[in-house]
Write a structure and sequence with these properties.
Glutaredoxin, seven-stranded mixed β-sheet, two-stranded antiparallel sheet, alpha+beta, 2 domains, 6 helices
Length: 197
């Protein structure tokens, strides 16, 4: 969807929507933007079921990861572009190395990209990732979460889903190299786990 000549104030008022500027311009002076929706803070996180892998191997095909199965826990859903790329490696390594301080033992973390479970297994093994990497090659889930990039990869976004299944925090432009974004994520996770009844 192309948008032009709409005031940004109007777009900001459209709750639950993110305006993602595209890298290319249509013509001089006109920037193409893509309007994407996703669950906003306070809204129920859409359930999903996807195949997965981690450092120990590929999960059983009959047992895909399902968000609803972790109701009652805080879940961090991290969409990212591709395995083995610089930014994604930095992000997933930081998650692994700072897991206890970022998340804690009772928080579930899942990463989602378009890569296959075989690629996820190699990537997770190379970094020693204890958490699951989910495969969403058709970007069905990433589209629900405003994380689908028109170029066929996921944008780097983060959601914190509370024990009640509602979004407690989202960052639609997470920066894998910015310590401030990790600090903000840490605070959101702690707030969600403290609010657990």
């Amino acid at each position: 969807m192309r948008i032009s000549h709409l005031p940004l104030a109007f777009l900001a008022l459209a709750g639950g929507m993110a305006v993602v500027p595209a890298m290319a311009q249509e013509s001089p002076g006109k920037v193409k933007a893509i309007l994407q929706t996703g669950p906003d803070v306070g809204q129920r996180a859409p359930d999903f079921s996807l195949p997965w892998a981690n450092r120990d191997g590929i999960g059983p095909i009959e047992s895909p990861y399902q968000l609803a199965s972790d109701r009652g826990k805080t879940v961090v859903v991290a969409f990212y572009p591709r395995d083995f790329t610089k930014g994604c490696t930095a992000q997933m390594r930081t998650f692994a190395e700072q897991y206890d301080s970022l998340f804690g033992p009772n928080v579930v973390v899942v990463g989602i990209s378009t890569d296959s479970v075989a690629t996820h297994r190699r990537f997770a093994e190379s970094l020693g990732l204890q958490y699951r990497l989910l495969s969403d090659p058709e970007q069905r889930v990433s589209k629900q979460y405003a994380s689908k990039d028109p170029d066929g990869y996921n944008r780097r976004t983060i959601y914190v889903v509370g024990p009640d299944g509602r979004v407690k925090f989202r960052n639609l432009s997470f920066n894998a190299l910015d310590p401030g974004d990790y600090a903000e994520l840490r605070a959101a996770v702690k707030s969600s786990t403290r609010g657990r009844s």
